[in-house]
Amino acid sequence: VSRQLKEEIRRGFARLEDPLAGLLAMLESSSDWKGKGHSLGYCITTELQLWIKAHPAVPQSGTKLKKLQARVLEMLSQCPANLLGPLISIYQLHTADRNYLLEHVSHLYLQGNYKEAAILSIKLKLQPDQDVEKMCTPLLLQDKANLVEDYVAEYPELQRKLLQTLDMWCDPSFNIRDITRPYQGLSRYKPEKFNRRVLSKLVFRLLERFNVDPALCPNVINQRHLRTLNYLFYKRFVEKTMTEENWGDHIQSTVGDNRWLQGHLVQLLLRHCDARGVAQWARCCQVPPEMLPRAVAEELQKLHIQDRAEEVTKADNYESSQKKDYYQLPIPRENIHFLQTWEETLQCWEKVLQPGQVVGVDMEWKPSFGMVGKPRVALLQLALKDEVFLLDLPRLLEQAEAEGEKEKLSHFIQMLYSDAAITKLGYGMSGDLSSLVATCSALKDTEKQMQGVVDLLAVDKQKVDGVSPQHSHEEKGVRQPEKGLSLLVQHVLGKPLDKREQLSNWEKRPLREEQILYAASDAYCLLEIYERLCKDPESFGLGSDLTESLVGKQSKKPRAKKQLNKQEAPLPSGQERQGPRTEPSCPPAPISPQEFSVVCDNMLQGLGRYLRCLGVDVRLLDNGDDHRKAAEIARQEGRVILTSGLPYQTLRSQVGEGRCFSVNCSEKAKEQALQVLKHFNVQVSLSDIFSRCQ
After folding, report:
1. For the chain, is the Cβ count within 10 Å smaller at the N or the C terminus?
2. Is 34 a member of any domain?
């Protein structure tokens, strides 16, 4: 609105004897304000609201105001949402007789204007004096669940009443048609949106939004648990993709001491097991004997007290016979460390937060099976070349909080993810990070600050769908049951991951040995995949320059330019920090590209070609060459090694200090070249460009 129009509106108010009556007369005689958007009527109304604040003597009271309020109420049902607030404020409707307001809303409701009645009730805060079921039922039938949420948003008691009502409707014995019958002629009626499945989802959404105890909705919770039971039986007895111990953990935590669920458990067991097997699991889940068939109850009496259920199904030797067909960890068991104290964890971080380090990162959490809340990370796995660290996050967070250092964990994780000198490998990292944020809210900005991150999910989205040189135990073209990371491991390393522990209860302590090995494998295999792809990208359908074909597509999110420590200048990727952080040392003496000789590792062919264009003396390793050949060439010909990732740690110890440089894999060839030239103070002139044979 122009300044000139605003001034004209305010001069108009000043000339009116009764601005409130004047505005009302204008609105009643015009239909302009009924449309959406900022109409002239809207502009005049909001200007009056501001003008009244500057002229406190204007507002009226008594009989005259009541008459104006009555006229305004008649208009509100036709009002666009943006006018409701200003009109309620100008005409002080919050001071009007409450019974009169309730009567007016009731009249709107009886006319079938359910949405308008609800919106007006919210604006006038009338909900505590209304029947929540009566007000919300027609809104749900019109698929206006968002308005229902807003209606109860500020009133915990109404939230509970609504949830109890919805839960009652979700009882399998309840006839939902009893609810819909009175509203058959309802406008915009959407019966397909009013069923137990949709209502159940709404219940879970409300439970999470309003942080209400799920025990308030036993029908919905029981039905969800029953679906979980059916799913677990399918995974164990049909797919056969869960170990017995893993399956048993979930069965016990799902059923608990719920008699209704115990009854369904017995029925499911009878379909898949013999009487002895049913008795064993019934005892594990503490099912009362009176709930069991006679044959099962008799078997229960014969059983001796055992710590753990015996094998329920026929011995299939699946676990032992199939083990050789899956990816196996190449490091000894003693190199897998389960960390539950901060003393151990700090030692781990000292090893992980080394420039040039390559870290496989993975996380595990207890499957929610559709229950309320986002999953919280129970285990953080960090894999290095020779060892794997499994961090017990719940225990570490609890200890840090007890010591008054809640931010300790988030500080270390942010340091890891924001350090461009450390290559972080993951698979579907965005999902992992969202669960990490749900576990530790201080990490909410971590994804924006990520640097040096390689998400191997990008490989799946490119061309790693051919059979790898080692992939020979299956015929090409046959559809594989593996998917996700397991399928990538199969393509690149020759054997899939054993995923039978994936759906484990990762919050239960102590972890089983199978869980520990699975968690370590999930993180360590990322290192092996990355090393194989770096060594021979073209065999897997990737470009010869892995920087362009893989790492350049790791994330769609922009990397933050700010450093974690603003006083610390960014170091070239992969270079050691010597001693305490001090002023940067003097740069080396400038040299020309003709004097600069390098050997580029085989994952950096794009960088090598770019440097050669600038006149640098470059040798490139072939795709089939071992990384160690770079060290031989460097020693024989006096060249600097340019490498990245895992090989840096090995190669830097084989040449003189400062003769091995780790390039940031998250950059493109041009940025990498600029980084190299700056670090070694190489001064390029116009005559150097294309001075060497390409």
Report:
1. C
2. no
Query: Which residues have a Cβ under 8 Å from the Cβ of 248 and sit 6 or more positions away?
Result: 281, 284, 308, 309
Angle at which helix 132-141 crosses helix 156-169, to 10 degrees, equals: 60
Question: Would 501 be classed as within a structural domain?
Answer: yes
Full domain range(s) for residue 242: 220-304
* Contact partners, residue 539, CB within 8 Å, separation at least 6: 468, 469, 623
Residue with tokens 């648990």: 225
Alpha-carbon distance 629 to 609, whole Å?
A: 19
Q: What is the pLDDT of residues 318-374, one digit of tens each?
A: 445 456 789 999 999 999 999 999 999 999 999 999 989 999 999 999 988 877 667
| Chain segment 551-564, per-residue pLDDT in tens | 444 444 333 333 33
| Final residue before a domain boundary, out of 513, 528, 549 | 549
Q: Exposed e or buried b for every residue in 264-302, given b needs 16+ CB within 10 A?
A: bbbebbbeebbbbbbbbbbbbbebeeeebeeebbebbee
* Domain tally, the chain: 3
Same domain, 508 and 448: yes
Q: Which two tokens stand for residue 472?
A: 């020979």
pTM for this model (two decimals): 0.61
Helix (H, G, I), strand (E, B) or coil at 422: coil
Check if the beta carbon of residue 250 is closer than 8 Å to that of residue 284.
Answer: no
Domain boundary among 304, 321, 343: 304
How many CB atoms sit inside 10 A of residue 74's CB? 10
CATH number at residue 380: 3.30.420.10
Degrees (nearest 5) of the Cα angle 241, 226, 278?
65
Count of Cβ atoms closer than 10 Å to residue 91 Cβ: 24
Q: Quick one: tokens of 123? A: 């604006």
Do residue 400 and residue 526 come from a single domain?
Answer: yes
